[in-house]
Prior knowledge:
Blueprint: E1 5-10, H1 11-18, E2 22-23, E3 40-47, E4 51-52, E5 57-59, H2 60-77, E6 86-92, E7 95-99, E8 103-108, E9 114-120, H3 122-130, E10 135-142, E11 152-153, E12 161-163, E13 174-175, H4 179-182, E14 187-188
Parallel strand pairs: 4-9, 5-12, 8-10
Antiparallel strand pairs: 1-6, 2-14, 3-10, 6-7, 8-9, 11-13
Amino acid sequence: MKILKYKKHAKEELIRKLRKVTLLNSKKIGKPIFVYKNTVIELREVKIKDLVPLQLYQLKSSNQLIINLNNILWKKYKEDIFHMDGYCVYESNDKKYTFIPPIIESIENSKGKMQNVVIDGLHRMLLAKKLKKETATVIVIRNIPQKLILPVVPNTWEEMEIVEIAPKGERKRRWLIPPEKGYLYYRDFNSSFENVGKPRR
């Protein structure tokens, strides 16, 4: 993997773009739903032990990609992917990619307590845990409308299985609704950022 071009963008632009993120496919029906438009968005340091995942698997290929990115961005640009103060855009294999801090949504669980769930950046947090890092700088988003909260029950890190190919349906997450309907709640980060990856069915 080679990075030919690299550009950093400030925290203010990161937050501005996050407010323009829509629900997956909502633009296609002519009524884009902006998930984070009226939420509280903060870039801050959190304890990794306080974060919980929302999926039951981790992709082996994604784990390796994050390891490679971590090594290259630190050695060449002194970019600490666990403590970013904005976001970056880089070019590799004649294609541009956007790399943003992990996205955490703060939601209330069934016991009335707030939980910080990992929405994006899961494999980075897995690497952070492997490297025994205690904290990370993440995007924490609060006050998400109830109707837009992902209908998924969080699981533990220990329950996550390393796989070559993403599993299907109930083996991916603990959905509170049929998995095929749950996909409609996915946040489409590509609606505001260029090539940050796509939600997996």
